[in-house]
Each structure stands twice: as structure tokens, then as C-alpha cells.
Design brief:
This protein is an all-alpha fold. It contains two helices and no strands. It is rod-shaped and about 175 Å long.
């Protein structure tokens, strides 16, 4: 009887070990499945983030290109404005010169008229007066 009891306990222990091993194997498989699912979710999130960041990069590049075009246009307008400003400055200088010549001409006319008045009747003075008018 002791032998039989010992064999039974041994069988029960072996069955318990076998059940424990099966449970361990099932737990390890469940763990491996969970790890795989987690890895797939991580990869999916990573791919989505990469796609989102790539889209943001494209948008930023487009915005930069637009700003470069605007800068080019603004620089062209600035160059045009500078050219017009230079032309305006030259025109102002010429106008001032013309006004100075006009004043000088007016002064010379007054002087001629004064000379003519002093020498009333001189033929050369009349000729000079007519040529200035």
C-alpha cells in the first residue's frame, strides 16, 4: 500500500508539474501576444507620427517658399522705389537749378532795364533788351 500511495502521489505531482508547465506555456504565449500587439501599436503610432510630421514639414517648406517669393517681390518693389526716389531727387535738383537760372535771368532783366532807363535812347541797349525778352 505504501508503494501504491507513493506512486499515486508521484503521479499527482507529475500531473501538477505538467499542469503548471501548460499554464506557464499559456501565460508565456499570452505575454508574447501582448508584446506583439504592443509592438504593432507602437509601430502604427510611429508611422502615423512620421506621416504627420512629414506633412507638417511639407507645409512649412511651402510656407517658406511663399515667403521667399514675397521677399523677392518686396525686394523688387524696394529697388523700384529707390530708383524712383533717385529720379525724384535728380528732378528736384534740376528744378532748383532752373529756378535759380530763372531768378538770375529775372535779375539780369531788371539790371538791363535799369541800364536802358539810364541810357535812354541807346540803340545797342534796345537790341540787348529785345534779345533777352
Amino acid at each position: 500500500r505504501d508503494l501504491e500511495a507513493e506512486r499515486r502521489r508521484r503521479r499527482e505531482a507529475e500531473e501538477a508539474v505538467s499542469v503548471a508547465k501548460a499554464e506557464l506555456r499559456l501565460a508565456e504565449e499570452a505575454r508574447d501576444r501582448a508584446k506583439e500587439e504592443q509592438r504593432q501599436q507602437f509601430e502604427l503610432r510611429h508611422e502615423q507620427e512620421v506621416a504627420h510630421n512629414a506633412q507638417r514639414l511639407r507645409e512649412c517648406n511651402e510656407a517658406i517658399e511663399g515667403l521667399r517669393e514675397e521677399l523677392g517681390l518686396a525686394q523688387g518693389k524696394a529697388a523700384g522705389a529707390e530708383k524712383v526716389a533717385n529720379q525724384l531727387e535728380i528732378a528736384k535738383q534740376r528744378l532748383e537749378e532752373q529756378q535759380a537760372f530763372k531768378r538770375e535771368n529775372e535779375e539780369l532783366k531788371v539790371q538791363v532795364e535799369e541800364l536802358l532807363a539810364k541810357k535812354a535812347g541807346g540803340g545797342a541797349g534796345d537790341h540787348l533788351h529785345r534779345s533777352l525778352n
